[in-house]
Structures
1.
Amino acid sequence: MTSKRVGEILAVAGRQHGLVRVDRLDRVGIDRSAVWRLTDAGVLERFGGPGIRRVAGGEVTPHQRLLAAVWATGPGAAASHRSAGWLWGLDAVTQPAPEVSVPPGVDRRPAGVIVHRASDLAPRSSTVVDGIPVTEPTRTLVDLASVIGADDLECAFDSALRQGLTSLPRAAAVLRRLGRRGRRGIGPFRALVEGREGATGVTESMFEMRLVQVLRRAGLPEPVRQLTLHDQWGLIGRFDCAYPEAQVAIEADSVRFHHSRERFEADRERRSRAEALGWRVPTFTWRQVSRRGQWVASTVAAVLDASGWNWRAVA
């Protein structure tokens, strides 16, 4: 075999996370027998299912596992559920194993792959991310609603809104299209979308979303998100959560965000200017929010009480 032919096969693999499909090489003018010879020589190795080869050597990547799972599952398959959420970079989503949805008539179940049969997996329900067929973002959120908890789903939804991957009108449209009695995920996702109607702002991180959830679970009113304040010198800045009626702004304080001296000093100036206007600015760390949520909520409640605002009447 010529070095040119070897280079062609490796170039195809390079565009596909180090993988090649034997049944598609003839589309680019490569004889399948070349793959067998490279496999015998140890340049390629069998991986993920029949007719799939991986460039030998190096660590197996999550993208390789997922693409191989989609290929091995059959025609029309797409990464879905937690695998799709991971590909789209949604908060609070991890993939325990490759997770794939297939249209009717496809019945392969490769080892180590979670397979979902989907009667409504139309072509418009999927796209391609990083070379991997995947369900589109809003469809992904509906699927996620069937396999993850409500708090994690809200984090994923907020991050999709933040990245511009979906919107409330888009979510409502997908609910109308996919909504049917008995379809898993529709109920929790509909409740989440309806609960966001009239809400102000989108959190800028999962940290902020977890803070909102801590306050909500404790029975405090839903805070305004990303409140902007001004004073006589102009823009003070945005605060993560706030209760304007009580002049209370709550900050999720990240060590990573304040790593530089410039960030640290800018944050202190912003807080001082807000306090000069009469605002209170309680601040909490990730450890406090994630491990001492009850104390965080109690502290915020005490600050609201001290403001004189009767928050219990609106909670």
Note: Residues 151 and 285 are 19 Å apart (CA to CA).
2.
Amino acid sequence: VLVETPLLVGGLFLVILIGKFSIATVAALCMRFPFRVALLAGAGLAQVGEFSFVLGKAGEAVGLMTAEESRVFLAASVMTMLITPILVRFAPHFAAGMAQLNPLERVFGGHGADEVEPEHPQLRNHVIIAGFGLAGRALAHSLKQVDIPYIVLELNPASVDRYRGEGEPIYYGDITSAEVLHHCNYLEAREVVLVISDPAATRRAVSAVRALAPELLITVRTRYFDEVAELQKLGATDVVVEEFENAVEMMARVLRRAGTPRNVIAARIAEARESKVELMRPLTLPRQRLMHFAEVMEQVKLDSYLMSGEDWAAGRSCHDINLRSVTGASVVALRRGEKIVPNPSPREKLQAGDVVYLLGDQPAVTGAMMFFQSGQAPQAEAQDSADGHDSSEDAPNA
């Protein structure tokens, strides 16, 4: 058919390709996608779908198309299918160079990365987060808590609208675009973090960022361990594998609930990581429940004492009063105002208003409270008589 009627088939091919491309692009712009994403959508939807063949046959059956017209339509349709993979392959490069058409984006109300707020281009030593799912939101929250600046790129328009309304520095943008990275001031960034769900998009993103910024740190989340080698070859600095981290987390939790000592769990995790050296990270374990220490807790008491200005120990340190040697109890923490001081130095002076946390057996803790008050070493008889009673009976300030 193409040989017999090349102009007709070629003309129909161009009409279909350009027409569908334009309709899909404008539709995406009306949905407030950035211009780059709209172009990619147009390229991906420019071909004729297989269902059109069904419609064509139905039209031919009722006389809307002749047999010859159906043959020409089929030939043009097949040509669109052949050209679409090429369009999809080169569309990202073509779209990346169309920044001059971004004003068209604003006509339709889209929000691209070129609309970064005035203060963001001046960002220095910031983190660029690509993807704002659960992991991206958790990372952003943590960065905000420690005052590390960040900017987020996301291709889900609903997420962008929602979180931008909540004050997040989030924008429509493709991390593989040089223009987008430029607007994010990538040359001054400390790190790029990729938490994208699409493995293929993740690989493209790593390649694009590494090509533009050879020294920039790139942290990548991936699902399977088999993908690590390729991501590192493409330029990823650090790869976090969900598959492996889930296995480690499950192992740690099961062993912890079984009452396995922490150092044994650490050894098992270290053993598991030795064969995956590239995935090494600090050990993290869930807190062990008190019920696992039930036997120990029967013999050891943790209690608190509110230091007053009238107490003999106020203004003195545990080293000065030799607390451990005299009473057998240890100070494991202090609460000073809103601040908790774990494992305070023995030379830390106790102040009025401090809540002192004491650890030891019952007689030792009770004796320490009495010692704080009077400065007199507890007598063995007094300690024995206090055994089995709550320390608050002997120490009103407890």
Note: Confidence is low (pLDDT under 50) at residues 113-119, 277-283, 381-398.
3.
Amino acid sequence: SVAELPSTISLAELHHNSDVRTTLLRNGKGLYQVLYPADCLLDIQALCRAVGQQLHPASAADVQKTLGSQRLEAVPAVPGVLGLPTYVDKRLLDAQQLAADSGSRDSVLQFNRDGFQLLAASATVADFSIPLADLETSRLAEVDDLTTITQAVANFTELRIKQRLEETLEFPPLPDTAQRIIKLRVDPYADIKDLTDIVETDPPLAAQVVSWAASPYYAAPGKIKSVHDAIVRVLGFDLVLNLALGLALGKTMAMPKDAPTGITPYWNQSVYGATAVESLVTAIPVEHRPTMGMAYLAGLLHNFGYLILAEVFPPYFTQYCRAKEVNPEANHAHIERHLIGVTRDQLAGWLMRMWEMPPEVCIALRYQNDPDYQGEHAQYAALIYVATRLLREHGIGDGPLEPIPAAFFERLHLTPEKARDVIQGVVDSGEQLRAIAANLAA
């Protein structure tokens, strides 16, 4: 039977009502459909072992061609509909009731156990999913990051010899420009000239700051010719201070050569993240607003752990990319825990503390995906939590495609409607924001 859903249902809400996930894989012989529980992670390596084939994610062109031939809006999470060889995770066959996306954005199908098993009769059944509950931590605040990272690194090395974290990870030192900016932050007598002098000693950074201020997004009158112009006429001292610091840190890591297909590029995510957080802060009543500069910096750096992951765990990063492609809606932390034993958020939070970054930023990056964290500076983490998920509803970034608990809006003193209106404004400025990101990536 078909259960009708409201025509205004969001992408996140639609998937939330489905008990089944589906993806298309390919090898030299053709396409295959894979079905697994929505509360599980697809382990593509386990699937390949189970079926004795090397499979990889189908291309966007493959998916579109398949949908076009069937006149469908999305891949239906139902075995047999597409006429492709199908692999079904055995956990699905044990469920008494299942709701599955029909391939139409406004309906789902309801199956009892016998009905689903009948449809899956010609499919190959195997065990290739991992329950998300097995990858959760009950309280992230109680996790010892240093121990967890050290254990992951020890497992990563061929000899499994646990070494001191600083020697093993070989993180780069904090750039000189960033060190000078951090010192400037705590100087009560710092002025525009001091900041201008620091930024202008790093010509590429200076060019990026000027380019940011001159972008159509800010619509500044006249031509922005210098860092001083950018500060005085457009961005302001605090914004340039945090912008310059975020850009300096972003250049410490090389952009990974590999990436999950279809992922929003790193600098696009950074620019959208910073702008979304800035806009949300502006919408918060004045008496409840966090510090704008800190929030902006946290938004700009929110995905910094992605670069660390690629730098520190290259072979596993390649596995992560493939796993993300077949689990596009999954929380990246689940995939990272499964493959490496540590998440990008833990790595980023630890490195920010090692670099003596402001605690607001350290906390924001470390707990940005922890729905339970309510400790010190929790509002900064909540801002990223909300911003990344609302952006993801528009296909931007790689935040989890999942509902946002009402408690997060309450913590920010925003209504869901107001927050979504704010993010819509950011999305509407996408052309200008992508132009800024293109200059940063150049």
Note: The mean pLDDT is 86.
